[in-house]
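Supplementary material to the annual report.
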Amino acid sequence: MAARTFTINDQLISAREGETILQAAREHGIFIPTLCYLDGVSAVGACRLCLVEIEGSRVLRPACVTPVVEEMVVRTDTGRLREYRRMIVELLFAERNHVCAVCVANGHCELQDLAIAVGMDHVRFDYAFPRCDVDISHPLFGIDHNRCVLCTRCVRVCDEVEGVHTWDVAGRGADARVITDMRQPWGEARSCTSCGKCVLACPTGAIFRRGATVGEMERDRNKIAYIVAAREQRW
Amino acid sequence: MGRLRLATIWLGGCSGCHMSFLDLDEWLFELAQHIDLVYSPLADVKEYPERVDVALVEGAVANEDHLHLIRQVRERTRVLVAFGDCAVTGNVTALRNPLGAPEALLHTIYVERVGTAGCMPHAPGILPPLIDRVQPVHKIVPVDVYLPGCPPPAPRIRALLEQIIAGGEIRLTGREMIKFG
Amino acid sequence: MDLSELLAIAEHENALRRPICIRCCTALGCQSAGSLSLKQRLEEAVAEVDRTDIEVIGVGCMGLCGHGPLVRIDPAGILYEHVHAADAPSIVAALDGGEATAPRGDPQHPFFTLQKRIVLENSGVIDPERIESYIAAGGYQALYHVLHDMTPAEVIDVVTRSGLRGRGGAGYPTGLKWATVAKSHGDRKYVVCNADEGDPGAFMDRSIIESDPHKVLEGMAIAAYAVGADQGYVYVRAEYPLAIQRLQRAIAQARRFGLLGAQIFDAGFTFRVDIRVGAGAFVCGEETALMASIEGRRGQPRPRPPYPAESGLWGRPTLVNNVETFANIPPIIRNGAEWFASIGAENSKGTKVFALTGKIRHTGLIEVPMGVTLRQIVEDMGGGVPEGKVKAVQTGGPSGGCIPAALLDTPVDYESLQRVGSIMGSGGMVVMDDATNMVDVAHFYMEFCKDESCGKCIPCRTGTAQMLHMLDLIRSGQATAADLARLEQLCIMVKETSLCGLGQSAPNPVLSTMKYFREEYEALVRG
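Predicted assembly:
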């Protein structure tokens, strides 16, 4: 396998052929914020938080799906990118009802971590305060759409790792919702195997174990990648 | 530099931020050497005074009284601090927003769920009318400093007050200072 | 089918023609104004006077849609507008002298004379429901020529030299796209015709398919031969029932005549075309979302690269072109690259079809050579606004911008329109008069984009909702100058960070109206 050499933030680093900018950056301890990205499932380039500047490219590129090219010059932390990332995180907080104080994921939430990382001390946009449902029809798990950021990690992990595709997205734009089966209550979604991978994959407090209360929803998201790796190496 | 005229204000919140402030314990004595507490729910002052240097505003803007007070605070204060998540985001106080205008909500709480004895609170001049939507403070008046946290832990409050007392630009970054919740 | 059979069909069809032809528009605009019953009445009126030298044929769009239903008498070239079924007997009687009860149109009006019809050459002339009518107009000869006399590389070379650029909006060089697909490796390749026209006020692609569906199919077949594809899809929205119906009929006819399917013209070339009906999501006009929809998945875009030319439908090389782009192909093959390249402007060759709408006297479908000015289109062809003055011209739909009246002398070509902050787009052109509030215009388009955002990427999903909210605040007088600045910042962020063209261009109507009509925003803000 050929190696590639390229530059991130004036630092010369090496990568394997076919590796993405994000993978190479992480291997070298360079932080690029992500939200929809999850080790073990396909990358979709949807959250736009990992956008980077590439010299010679007119447009910003998502690091999670852009392969490293020899001698590429990448910047991950310019003033423009920092401002855009903060705006994106603010827009997410304004979109639904993210009330950290009463959230099961408080303290263990990727959205909360992102807010800290981008320096968000308040949201400059008006909050939408939409009315969102909470579905606790499943005996083990629940979904609180107030906390959902539509990253589709649950959709992908269910489809690609569990092989079930209970989750999908219905509706468009601001009305989009993750759904189970044909938009039945989760408890009536017969395809669901109750494997809990979506619970592991969820970056926020949207999908949770029933019974968990404020701050109790800890999870080890590396398990997804572990399951995938174990399976691939055996086959 | 003279002593800072400090005010603390309690809008629509649970007073947890004020409790956290009291959690500063013996450091409060040190603080007292630098400030005069000119207005606070912890002190019995009826009228918000003029020429306040720093105001810690706890709570979201939820009713007409809050609206009136916060505008007065803004007019008479140099540095307005949104103190805690309710002031910064609306937080728990704003949980009623997705449910729509407050009248229906009040009716459910005070009439429908009470049985025969229920009635809407109506005594004039006692309970301030709720505004349609609970808002974070910066939606109503300009805010100078944001101190998230539900409540902001005492060390975080202390770090901010130390920066304010020291003068100069206020910078709050990192998990210890700006984590919500 | 071979060339002599094709020519025989044409000859036979031409022999059927009668000396006098009454052409009645049966495209959707005129149909909705009652042209089907009108056509029937015309046929009855002809039968009543027992004239065998007169025929009535249903044709596609004649262009002046705002004045429909339209009827034209050929070869005399008499045009009737706003024709009712009751006018039919008098129109037939007028062939012997006298006046018909329907108002006369002016075929010498600049609306018609300033046009250059390549894509629309058969539109309003032939019967779109009969393949023989297209063949009689020289149809499918370009395909025969390509299959028998040219290599795929030669076809691509002609298209490249013609200077044709994609008519879907972005203006990517068509020849280059074809060459990329041709060079890409795959066990199968696909050709896709993007007929998911969704811009408010745009109906170019619908009219082309309704008026001359075979031309699009012939263009697709030529493209398939050039890139090595054997399967084509036309992705058309369900809101276009007549276009779908005519396309279905055209495909069935072409298949029966051996012009689609296996062994076309006995040249060892196979090409099948199927229709995929979209559910009307604007985002499905974006090529990666369109392909997802064809594959049966949720119509959402994905990041490019990889481009469809390398990895498209089911991971195979796929050529995606717009309806109008394909419709340009047969004339280019027939008349040569040099002929096409001699028409139009420096870097924008050929013609462009526009749907001219809004506050203007003559609304309808026009095809003009690239390089004409907006002023010629709006004032000469469109006859200007009925009352007041032109304020702005909106091109490119929700992805485009508003060009102020002061810039009406801007020539219509890809680069010039981009320079003034708009885009060519697929060809929607909405004229606004001075009674129009530009903040309302921006709000209208933002509402559209917010509704049509698929929700996949955060900047577009949340950004359009937030921009719309801020425009609401501005319109209701609740915004400050600082809000205006924040809106502008948000626009730029959404433009630069969104995943696909929808989000990347959604802020354009706001940015362009802010640029040219800032005072209208400032008049609404407080402080």
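Residues 54 and 79 of chain B are 5 Å apart (CA to CA).
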